[in-house]
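Why do we care about 3D structure at all? Because function follows from shape, and shape follows, mostly, from sequence. That is the central idea of this module. The next example makes it concrete: a single protein chain, its amino acid sequence, and then its structure expressed as tokens.
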Amino acid sequence: MEELLKLPGVGRKTANCILGECFKIPSMVIDTHMIRVMNLLQFTTSKDPKKIELELMELFNEQDWVKLTHMVIDHGRAVCIARRPQCDKCVLQDICPSVIR
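And the structure:
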């Protein structure tokens, strides 16, 4: 991680993506979709990506981090959309504390 962060234009999100996808090192990419969905599901109350990353790493099994990242980001893009969430189509609506009925 630290070596990647030394590269120009590489931040924590990009470094985690490279670690997970290129080197198969367990990592979590925290982007706007992860922040929104994980806040709505009440896995975190933070908006700080690094803090969220550390919190989620404590909650989920390491072998699931990369897959979880992809699933949550895809869900945030397709269903749990910021301005128009499609709660009626959401597979998590029965357990989501933020569901709009």
